[in-house]
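[Solved] Which block belongs to which protein?

Original post:
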Amino acid sequence: MRLWMMLIPLLLLEISTTAAQPETQPKVQYPCSVVLLPVMDMPNTQGAALITKVKKPYTADPISPLRERQSVGIYADWMPDPSSFGDYDQYEGLVQIPGAISWRFKLSAVYTKTSGFFGGQLWAGKTEEISMDLPVNTRVEVRLFNSKTKETGRAIAQNTLQGCK
């Protein structure tokens, strides 16, 4: 009986870690980029995501060893004002491996002399903390975000890494 009590947690751990593994997909070849397309009819709204490997130090110490990470940068142009979709004041980037894990990061408005003059705004941001290789079914999205309530809205532009070149 004692042996079974010791084995059951190990068996459950094996089942849960096996179930959490994403299905096998081809991995992205680095570096690559993909166009982010609008999810609804919005004139001019598009973006791009750059996926690459970066080497980052573990600490700020100049002799800190380097660690390799995947970086996903998003450039989204001709974006409507987030408030035009409701109670939102920002956009955020989302990188998601379906059924496994996701990363969220803030996009910042980039102000230029012509920003908003013709109705579109430029937003950009990146994450450099992805420690696993990204499969081609990874989704990259630009989503609405409310910075006060921390509530995320729907995707405005998106694509998978299937066509990442």
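(Second protein starts here: sequence line, then its structure tokens.)
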Amino acid sequence: MKPQSNWPAVDAGAAATEWLSQALLVPSRGEWLRGDPVQVLTGVLFDAVQIPVEVICSQVGSADRDAVEAVFRRAGIDSAVIAQPPYGWYYALVPPGTARWWNAPCECFGSSHSIAVPAPHRADPPGVHWLLTPPADAASLCDPERVRNPS
């Protein structure tokens, strides 16, 4: 079966797994090995901007994956975005500390929160998956200003 995502199914997962594992609530990668999401602390390696699916889909009039990815890519965001279709959210992972000054309509989670992070190789639905490639280091996080103004 051909992956639905536009990013390669190479083992981008190895570097991302190493980096993201530093913030796991439970120091086990077993869930990721099964392809399940795990709870990761925000405010350690990244903060997370919670964006309602409707906000992105209203910009393109579609929930089509290519159209949604295009919204982020037009804003200069090409990695570190999680899709949580069952809950109606996208999470853009931004540098830690962003939540302290964030004042946009979408909520930004910093320290004392956690989010479900898909296995680094999990690029397709159903369930929680990476809409754009997982970050392998701080340099591959989203720019908060580009998340704030995605058009």
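Accepted answer:
You had them paired correctly. Confirming on the second one: Strands lie at 38-41, 47-52, 81-84, 89-94, 107-109, 114-117, 129-132.
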